[in-house]
């Protein structure tokens, strides 16, 4: 989670291979009960909506899992402790390991500092929420700031279940600009089930083969994408 400081008040279709990787990695950066919790849960499943795409996801400890909505059977697992991203192709029984990529920050990143100002209270999907104006940035890049409006669910320990992020500072052509209004991204969490994740969701099946490239991972479709990008 981001470290919070309190100033003043309370505180599309099938894309090419590179585009697909960006969507998977960005979606991963974004990770995310009927009782009041001491803090946001570290074990849950949810449906994450991002610019019209619905992505089944799971979180357990430092690991996250995202199912790609554009290609059935393509799953991305991130293990922060190991600085590793694993992409699984269920149809091809293959997986690809890569180091976690540097990207535009989001509020759930552990190295992000967020300055919050309470601006209201609303109920979303039955969850009582506190609404905040937020300015956030990476600790090592304090001059590169981003803005967001965030709804934190009080009954889920402050888990952000809606985020309207302003990435107008993102370099032209960045992921945010490709997924909605230029420089803006809206992410919502629905159907949240605390405790719904289990260890097997984040493991590579024993009969999967390790590969070294996206074309290998995706089989014939990957080769077609590679050829399209060369044209």
Describe the secondary-structure layout.
Elements: E1 3-5, H1 17-29, E2 43-50, E3 53-60, E4 63-67, E5 74-79, E6 84-89, E7 94-99, E8 112-124, E9 127-138, E10 146-153, E11 159-166, H2 175-178, E12 184-194, E13 209-211, H3 214-218, H4 220-230
Parallel strand pairs: 1-8, 7-13
Antiparallel strand pairs: 2-3, 2-12, 3-4, 4-5, 5-6, 6-7, 8-9, 9-10, 10-11, 11-12
What would you say about this model in short?
This protein is 14% helix and 42% strand.
CATH class: Mainly Beta
> What would you report as the Rg, rounded to the nearest angstrom?
18 Å
Poorly predicted runs are: 3-38, 172-181, 222-231
* SSE order: EHEEEEEEEEEEHEEHH
* Mean model confidence by pLDDT: 77
Strand content: 35-45%
CATH level 3 topology: outer membrane lipoprotein receptor (LolB), chain A
Per DSSP, the total helix count is 4
Number of beta strands: 13
Describe the 3D structure.
- The structure is a single chain.
- It contains 4 helices and 13 strands.
- With 231 residues, the protein is mostly beta strands.
- The chain has a single domain (3-215), classed as Lipoprotein localisation LolA/LolB/LppX (outer membrane lipoprotein receptor (LolB), chain A), CATH 2.50.20.10.
- Helices cover 14% and strands 42% of the residues.
- The chain has a 13-stranded mixed sheet.
- Mean pLDDT is 77; it is low at 3-38, 172-181 and 222-231.
Provide tags for this entry.
mainly beta, outer membrane lipoprotein receptor (LolB), chain A, 13-stranded mixed beta sheet, 13 strands, disordered N terminus, disordered C terminus
């Amino acid at each position: 989670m981001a470290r919070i400081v309190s100033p003043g008040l309370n505180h599309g279709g099938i894309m090419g291979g590179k585009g697909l990787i960006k969507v998977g990695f960005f979606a991963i950066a974004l990770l995310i009960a009927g009782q009041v919790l001491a803090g946001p849960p570290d074990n849950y499943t949810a449906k994450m909506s991002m610019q019209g795409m619905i992505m089944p996801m799971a979180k357990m400890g430092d690991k996250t899992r995202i199912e790609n909505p554009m290609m059935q059977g393509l799953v991305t697992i991130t293990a922060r402790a190991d600085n590793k991203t694993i992409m699984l192709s269920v149809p091809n029984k293959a997986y690809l390991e890569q180091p976690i990529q540097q990207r535009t920050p989001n509020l759930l990143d552990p190295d992000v500092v967020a300055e919050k100002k309470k601006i209201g209270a609303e109920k979303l999907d039955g969850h009582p929420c506190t609404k905040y104006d937020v300015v956030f940035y990476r600790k090592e890049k304090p001059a590169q700031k981003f803005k967001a409006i965030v709804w934190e669910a009080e009954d889920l320990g402050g888990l952000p279940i809606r985020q309207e992020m302003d990435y107008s500072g993102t370099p032209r052509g960045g992921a945010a600009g490709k997924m909605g209004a230029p420089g803006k991204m809206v992410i919502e969490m629905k159907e949240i089930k605390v405790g719904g994740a289990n260890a097997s969701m984040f493991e590579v099946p024993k009969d999967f083969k390790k590969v070294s490239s996206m074309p290998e991972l995706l089989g014939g479709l990957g080769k077609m994408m590679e050829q399209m990008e060369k044209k």
